[in-house]
Amino acid sequence: MLTRKQHELLMFIHERLKESGIPPSFDEMKEALDLASKSGIHRLITALEERGFIRRLPNRARALEVLRLPDSIAPGLNAAKKFSPSVIQGSLGQTSPGQGGLGRQIKPATPPSRVPAAGNDDDAVSAVSIPVMGRIAAGVPIDAIQHQTHSISVPPDMIMGGEHYALEVKGDSMIEAGIFDGDTVIIRNADTASPGEIVVALVDEEEATLKRFRRKGASIALEAANPAYETRIFGPDRVKVQGRLVGLIRRY
């Protein structure tokens, strides 16, 4: 739910981007909303960013991106904008269960192997086999399953560089980001993240959860994408990033 000023600013940025492809300056936003100072614009932009409506692009002046609009304005747009990684729908091939343990930490997967894609006679297109390392909570953090259960094959353009693994989602805390109970998320192994990215976070060395990564001063906030769940805030020494979300597989 946006306030009137938040809604006005979001629509002003959206319309300016549609017209010129360039976001408005802070002075232009201040004048458009009839505010006395630019500090009010800063607060509105921060609120819109925290609610997942816009994103500030790093290292670029005046760089704003509208991720979604209120459902009352453009419900169809939000279905496409809420979740940016690649999505595969349908059933994917699985290999036999793998061996080996993880301990409590989601550890880097071995480099993915390339296998021929099903139904491709000339082998011009390859799929990539990555391990499924168990289950991740999209809700209250739970222990991650600590061993490889099987492997899945995904298109190579879904995982561009780096080491990857997959996790099965349990819970509904990320539904407004387009991630549902039963989905399989593709994770690029990483120990850092930018604010706003969806990550696998290890809490207190024993609980893994899938949440949006934020910073609150010196603390780290793990933000759900479901208003039924509260944002949880931890000291920086209590949270370790284990990977960043890059794709999603949904079976029907």
Question: What's the quick description here?
Answer:
With 252 residues, the protein is of the alpha+beta class. It is built from 4 helices and 13 strands. It has helices at 4-20, 26-33, 38-50, 75-81; strands at residues 54-56, 64-66, 86-89, 113-116, 126-137, 150-154, 164-170, 184-189, 198-203, 207-216, 219-223, 232-234, 239-250.
Task: Describe what you observe in this structure.
- This protein has 252 residues and is α+β, with helices and mostly antiparallel strands.
- The chain contains 4 helices and 13 strands.
- The strands form 2 sheets. Strands 3, 4, 5, 6, 7, 8, 9, 10, 11, 12 and 13 form an 11-stranded mixed β-sheet that branches.
- α1 crosses α3 and α2 packs across α3.
- The radius of gyration is 20 Å and the shape is globular.
- It starts with a helix and ends with a strand.
- About 23% of the residues have low confidence.
Which of globular, elongated, flat, extended, rod-shaped describes the shape?
globular
Q: What's the total helix number?
A: 4
Unreliable sequence segments: 75-124, 140-146
What is the CA-CA span between the terminal residues?
Answer: 31 Å
How many distinct beta strands? Answer: 13
Order of helices and strands: HHHEEHEEEEEEEEEEE
Beta-strand proportion: 25-35%
Q: Approximately how much helix is present in the residues? A: 10-25%
Structural class: alpha+beta
Query: Can you summarize the main beta sheet?
Result: 11 strands, mixed
Radius of gyration: 20 Å
Overall residue-averaged pLDDT value? 74
